[in-house]
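Hey, resending since the last one bounced:
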Amino acid sequence: MDRLGNEHIKGELPPNYEELKKAANRTANWRERLKAVEELGQWENQQTIDILQRVAAEDAVYKVQEAAYRKLKKIGADTPSPSRKKGDLIKGVTKILLRIKKSLPEGHTVEEFKEKLQRTRIDVYDTYEGEKGADFDQWLENTWASLSTKDLNHKSKQK
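The structure tokens again:
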């Protein structure tokens, strides 16, 4: 049920469609994408269905994919169930994280690493924070601890 008490609003576009479309495509904010999916799912027309199908198939954060899938099922759209991505959610994430660690002074803290990641690569930060949920800080700390700047220095000298 939408806020008007209707099951779905058929054939119409939401008055803020362009805004919702942008939010659904915003790579650096999974919460905004999730909110956009929830609202788009109240409107049954081809444009909103297309956006929801793309999100269900391609979003980097499983929670967002799953929400889009549920909305599509509710309106009767035929769509495959999303599956959690295996491996890296963002291509080359280890290299990205190594560069950030290397750019920080020797002896930096995991908090400083986290802050720089958030400042310089909000897309990476946001995707992993959305996917890992309550386990994000532990994942980030474990990943940070496992990154070796010596490995990065060795690899860059080989090139």
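The CA atoms of residues 98 and 147 lie 6 Å apart.

Sorry for the duplicate.
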